[in-house]
Design brief:
This protein is α/β, with parallel strands linked by helices and 484 residues long. Helices cover 36% and strands 13% of the residues. The strands form 3 sheets. It has an 8-stranded parallel barrel, surrounded by 5 helices. It has a 3-stranded mixed β-sheet with strand order 6-8-9. It has a two-stranded antiparallel ribbon with strand order 12-13. β10 (377-382), α14 (399-417) and β11 form a beta-alpha-beta unit. α7 runs parallel beside α9, α8 (172-180) packs antiparallel against α9 and α14 runs parallel beside α15. The structure holds 5-hydroxymethyl-3,4-dihydroxypiperidine. 5-hydroxymethyl-3,4-dihydroxypiperidine binds at residues 22, 25, 171, 300, 381, 428, 435, 444.
Amino acid sequence: MTTSRPSGRQFPADFLWGSATASYQIEGAVHEDGRAPSIWDTFSATPGKVLGGDTGAVAADHYHRVPQDIALMQDLGLQAYRLSVAWPRIQPLGSGEFNQRGLDFYSDLIDRLVEAGIAPVVTLYHWDLPQALEDEGGWANRETAYRFADYARKLAEVFGERVTVWTTLNEPWCAAYLGYGSGVHAPGRTDPVAALAAVHHLNLAHGLAARAIREVLGEAAQVSITLNLHVTRAASDAPDDVAAKAKVDTVANEVFLQPLLEGHYPAAVFPQTAHISDWSFVQDGDLELIQVPIDLLGINYYSTGRVRRLEGAPVVGDGTPGPDGHKSSEVSPWIGCDDVEFLPQPGPHTAMGWNIEPGGLTELLLEMHDRYPTVPLAVTENGAAFADEVSADGRVHDVARVEYLHDHIDAVGSAMDAGADVRGYFVWSLMDNFEWAYGYDRRFGIVRVDYDTLERTPKDSALWYRELVRTGTIPPAELAPTLS
Ligand code: IFM
């Protein structure tokens, strides 16, 4: 077969191929078996917050379809499944009593995965904070970090060694800056002081939880965190533009990487945000708690950004996708970056308006490897939303998604060729789901979900991915529609 793309790259036999989802995005059953509301239940029920008024009340109904969904994963040959646990199912009020029915749900899910030969990669927090904790201040309140450690300890005690990898947090950048800064995510607050406090308390929560998991399970427990590190480029070599990029790097990446892996905050963040906060929420001893050796750094990658020094007043809220690619807001999530202008990136773009640039993933993996050579990496999310259509033959010929995955997986291979220690790759997402502020309007799945019947149909991308997992070799994108 002739192909315009460089296929045929082989991956090591022990490279882990998986896919990822998150609790609120797929489970539904929000009122069942003792689950209490999360901040996303409250937020999505608030008019105007989520496109089309969509909520996660039913989502993909995964809560009632676990056996079927695991059979689907098996059919696709997945070796690992990255799921997240809904804290309000486990501990409805975020403190105090645990809910046995919630623990049983995930225990059963994990058992079934193990039985199916699929490694459970478990994220403890993918944004569905118990509403009761938000009522006490949420991530802006230091206490939430301690409550998170209690919850993590309980999960370690109950799930034990059945979990292959423990991931404390998913994308704390989004939780802090979109949740408390721009307010486009739950809990929808627009308070820059709270957003910076949330950054620190999420870091602290990671450190406390990682320690709790290791106390329960010992050093054999594989502990990780997943970050959505931003690949941002300066529009020119002009010192002002280079400084603009540095500002973005500081608040987007360095405020997580440096405390987590080096034991200190980036010096630049204090002057950059001095007009907002004095960072007095950082207490003596916190940085020692935050810096825990991790066994894996998860990286979520979708696109790149470009910035320059802003001339004149900031322009926001024009209805186009926000600078970070998330829903536009009147309020910028870019705290401490008032004099930075985010430029539109050239296409092609996905349905999120995010530019497609696989080379950014190679760069990012190599940079992380250069900086932290002893920390193994995994791409814990990568994928694309496109306007899928069901063809007359009943299939979804999602050529653009196949090409996206092909090129990004090839980019992972390039990074590995250049020395990056990458252990696995997880497609976002296994199935179409609740895409946060965009509701069900954006489809990221390699499996289509019909939201009327909840029927699952593997798209061409799923069949192509199955072939990749089966052979350990990147198949030509053109093969996808011929697979069954
Ligand atoms: O759907 C999200 C996921 O929950 C976190 N990472 C990015 C995905 C696409 O926006």
